[in-house]
Amino acid sequence: MVQDVTMTAERVLVRPAAEADDPALLALDSAAWDSSSGFPSFRAALRGSFFTERAGPQSYLVAELGGDVVGYVKLQDKYQFAEGAGVLEVAGLAVSPTARGKGIGSTLLDAVATEAKQRGARKISLYVFETNTSAQRLYERHGYVVEGRRIAEFVIDGAPRTDLSLAKYL
Ligand SMILES: CC(C)(COP(=O)(O)OP(=O)(O)OC[C@H]1O[C@@H](n2cnc3c(N)ncnc32)[C@H](O)[C@@H]1OP(=O)(O)O)[C@@H](O)C(=O)NCCC(=O)NCCS
């Protein structure tokens, strides 16, 4: 699945990730998250590569702007058993800080919806910290609704953090 979207003067291409994207995605990932959006312990862990054995390029779509990788979304089956079939999970969405506010996150979510429909999914699920209001606005614009609140699910920077469960029904 490849989507080509022209925004203002710039062209965003969404395509499946490839092994060769590893260094660019590693750099993007280390710049993209802070403690309002991600887990500090994940950022502190030394990583030699972006892709892992369990989540290789096949789990990701990437966004390119002017030939540079500027965003990614990780999309996977939420459950590994028959009864949960048809529920996809957005298990990571990030755009390079220098490329934000141009609709790249939105283009990636459009691509997720297209891909999910192609796979015959009935629902897309994700989690977002309650503190991450910019991401919540983006998801809401794309039809995601709050399904649940996991109150004080984590402790981040010494404070309890509530995690929201969001879903889009296809
Ligand atoms: C959340 C995230 C992926 C959004 O990516 P993005 O590319 O900036 O998203 P968009 O550009 O589609 O939308 C962001 C804002 O820009 C605005 N925008 C989009 N295109 C625009 C344009 N051409 N001109 C002006 N504004 C524009 C949107 O309306 C939106 O505004 P809002 O913040 O007031 O709601 C990005 O901020 C990020 O990587 N954050 C850190 C990681 C994260 O939080 N991930 C989600 C965890 S669940």
UniProtKB/TrEMBL annotation:
This is GCN5-related N-acetyltransferase. Residues 12-170 form the N-acetyltransferase domain. The keyword Acyltransferase applies. It comes from the Bacteria. Keywords: Acyltransferase, Transferase. It comes from Kribbella flavida (strain DSM 17836 / JCM 10339 / NBRC 14399). InterPro entries: Acyl_CoA_acyltransferase, Bact_Acetyltransf, GNAT_dom. GO terms for molecular function: acyltransferase activity, transferring groups other than amino-acyl groups.
